[in-house]
Amino acid sequence: NAGVTQTPKFQVLKTGQSMTLQCAQDMNHEYMSWYRQDPGMGLRLIHYSVGAGITDQGEVPNGYNVSRSTTEDFPLRLLSAAPSQTSVYFCASRHTSGGNNEQFFGPGTRLTVL
Amino acid sequence: GNSVTQMEGPVTLSEEAFLTINCTYTATGYPSLFWYVQYPGEGLQLLLKATKADDKGSNKGFEATYRKETTSFHLEKGSVQVSDSAVYFCALPPGTSYGKLTFGQGTILTVHP
To answer: Of A36, A60, B14, B62, which has the highest C-beta tally within 10 A?
Structure first.
């Protein structure tokens, strides 16, 4: 198993540009989520999905869109990048049954918005 | 709601020193408890877990005991190495199928030779 994969690893954008961060998992996990990690702020949940076709907002959803057309993929879209979105982004996934399952994380995408 | 309080960092130690990182939690019921580790430039990975009260999770020389009476899950290691330098997160799973994982704020550990 490849686990949770993310692309790209690094990205530099100019203010106003759009881009999509890719996330895929091969563990047949129902639950997938996106976090951002900023210095001194820990991990904050952006959006999550509990299955194909179902998404919901987390703590900091503004400026980001998601969709879930397949179980495996959960892309994160920045429609008009802002410097405040400079951060490290992590995708994660887990099974939903029981509520005590380990969550698996991808290696992260380091985004800089100029 | 669920919450996790983790000791403030950063923590700086010399190699072979003893490590304790405190973690206390507030939760409904008796969930599992996790410690995640994030090495420089990498994503988070599960370090150890405990699924019920008095359970001890262990991995890579690290240990943590699930203490229901003190609602704590402190992380310990008897002799740290330079390679243990990382950020450590205490975490509380949601206990429900669709809830979110609750993280502590993270503790940066730096180990010097």
So the answer is: A36
Q: How many of the other CB atoms lie within 10 Å of CB of A13?
A: 19
Contact (Cβ atoms closer than 8 angstroms) between residue A63 and residue A89: no
| Residue A89 in contact with partner chain B when CB distance is under 8 A | no
Using CA atoms of A17, B40, A4, A59 in order, give the dihedral in degrees to the nearest 10.
-60
* Phi, psi (degrees; rounded to nearest 5) at B83: -70, -10
Per the CB < 8 A criterion, the answer to whether B102 and A103 are in contact is no
| A88 reaches B (C-beta below 8 A) | no
The two three-digit tokens of residue A43, written as one number: 């991990």
Judge: A108–B42 Cβ closer than 8 Å, yes or no: yes
Residue numbers in B near A106 (CB within 8 A) = 43
Per-residue pLDDT of chain B (113 residues; tens, 9 = 90+): 889 999 878 999 999 999 999 999 998 877 899 999 999 999 999 999 999 899 999 999 999 999 999 999 999 999 999 999 999 999 998 877 788 899 999 999 999 99
Q: Which of A33, A42, A96 sits opposite B106 (nearest CB)?
A: A42
